[in-house]
Amino acid sequence: MSLPPEKASELKQIIHNHLLKMDIHGKIREVLAETVRDDQGPARRSLSEADFLRALQRRGIIDDMMKDLHFTQVAQLFGCSFRPIFQIANIDPSRRCLYLQVLGGKAFLEHLQEPDPLPGQVCSTFTLYLHFRNQRFRSKPVPCACEPDLKEGFLLEIHRDGIGMADATSMLSMCDPVHFVLIKTDTSSETMLVSSYFLDWRTVLSSPSSKTCFAVELMGVGSESKVPAGVLTVSLELYPPLPEILSADIISTQQSLERQRAAEKERLFLVYAKQWWREFLEIRPSNQTKLVKIFAQDENGVNRPVCSYVRVLRAGRLLESPRQAARFVSLLAHEKAPVVGGGGKQEQWCTLMAFLCRGKGDCEDHATLLCSLQLGFGMDAYVCVGTKAKGVPHAWVLTRGTDGSITFWESLTAHRYLHRPIDPDAPPLAPQPKPSYPYQTVGCVFNHQTFLANCQPSDAVELCVFDFQNQSRWKAMSEEALKSVCAPGSTTSLPPLPPLCSPSLDPAAASNQLELEMRYLVSEHRKDLDLATVWDDHLSYLLSSALSAYELERCTGVSCGNEEFQDAVRRAVPDGHTFKGFPIHFLHRNARRAFATCLRSPFCEEIVCCRGDHVRLAVRVRVFVYPENACAVWIMFACKYRSVL
């Protein structure tokens, strides 16, 4: 907790007055003299600060000082008194809360040989993310170790719509788990999903004093989902405590009933899906080769219907339009699921929480998130599963207009393409639309309540007609069958939908920091070439409008503001001088990585290494921040110099 300067001065004065009152200087002098006397001997050595502190502790000086210090005045500076945690947090006593504490980690054997980081040394870190009933939390990053120092407390509100204080019976029926996501961030800021775990917190309902403590074994992800990643010690405490606790048998019976109910629904859906698939194959033999994806594995190796990965997701005031949503999704990095050894693509669709916490994922993760956001904006949106160039499997988003128009959205780039099908029965010389999209085939489309398989003679996208009501073109699954396993709350095995988090990054501060680092790197690079560097701050400032226009164009698809930028540059560059500029876009804020990438471009290198008469350099950085701290980073290098013929 930080204090304003005037309060900090007041706090220092309170501590100073207290130390004077107990004559701390006199006591320190006595201990110092005594320690020096004791140290006079044949094995005489120099007296260190640590020796002196130990002597103060032995004499009880430090304990006396802390015991006599009254914290009432100090507490007033912070605007609070020293009370139990729930009172400090200003919790409504009429609402039930769950205080979840992580008390440390152990058995993270992958980091067994990792040395302890030196003070100030950059090292890999663990960060723990939590989601519970529309609330999200994150821990402080801690150094990766076999026994990581993960010690955090999270206050989760257990609220029931229309009910203030949730009693034991109503809480027993709340099957929402606490979703733990553990992320490792390496020294180059690359993130890796370590574990995704669903904690059933209801064991606390049978614990004396509404408190319990236990170990949670975290498993790996993907191909390592059966291998333990590590263990967390977790403590749970209900506030206010329950007047009467439930028996452990009641809780285990409830959990068993929920599992049985979910397993039965999943079994019935599997029986239906097999029958539906047989009917689809009977339509025409070529359907066997189409990419019809009914189930997909998540990060824990659990097979779920693909429709369960799409939900109606409203972003509140964090995103303003479907196009801005597409821009946000495209800023989350693209990375295929890691594979140990060969064998091609690893099958892994991530839960939304794991995808957002990691900040990157495969094309399916991007497409399902974009489709969920488009549905939230009231659009008729679907995820398409098919192939792009060279038959590479791919997923993208399709939206249907009320006029029947079909638009493809590439979730990795935010590009939009209008689809006009080619008529195979048209005369040879008749003009046909030329497709601009990169997609080759489409096997199926789906959203949160619809699944349709392509049963047209050809699955080529350019020939497809996306008339979903025409049963001779698209075979639909029963909406009731899908609802039984994919609708929110239909089964306890369905991961809860997390809300988007507002950005915590200050765009102005991030832009300034990165710009200073880029200036330093440019100056050092030119120094190595025996070139002086003179910056033109006014020219640097003028570059801002161009970067703003570039980001606006990426968001809206509309270009504007270029005329004003060109006019300002003409005024800033004197007659007889030449101006050169080079803009570039990144998804990260690592200055050295960005500069190394820039220098690979001959245009940028020409500007950075510019030689000539009256050379002036400029660089401008703009960091545009979106939900989840997703960043669009624009950097523009420029120079002006006198032209010499």
UniProtKB/TrEMBL annotation:
Boundaries of every CEP76 C2 domain copy: 90-242
A Pfam family of this chain: CEP76_N
Cell compartments where the protein resides: Cytoplasm, Cytoskeleton, Microtubule organizing center, Centrosome, Centriole
Chief localisation class: cytoplasm
Annotated CEP76/DRC7 peptidase-like domain residues: 347-477
Cellular component annotations (GO), alphabetically ordered: centriole
Matches recorded under InterPro entries: CEP76 (IPR052299), CEP76-C2 (IPR028926), CEP76_C (IPR056288), CEP76_N (IPR056289), CEPT76/DRC7_peptidase-like_dom (IPR056290), Papain-like_cys_pep_sf (IPR038765)
Transmembrane segments: none
GO-annotated biological processes: regulation of centriole replication
Domain CEP76 N-terminal intervals: 10-69
Stored PANTHER family: CENTROSOMAL PROTEIN OF 76 KDA (PTHR46436:SF1)
Functional summary from the UniProt entry: Centrosomal protein involved in regulation of centriole duplication. Required to limit centriole duplication to once per cell cycle by preventing centriole reduplication.
Record's protein name: Centrosomal protein of 76 kDa
Organism (species): Maylandia zebra (zebra mbuna)
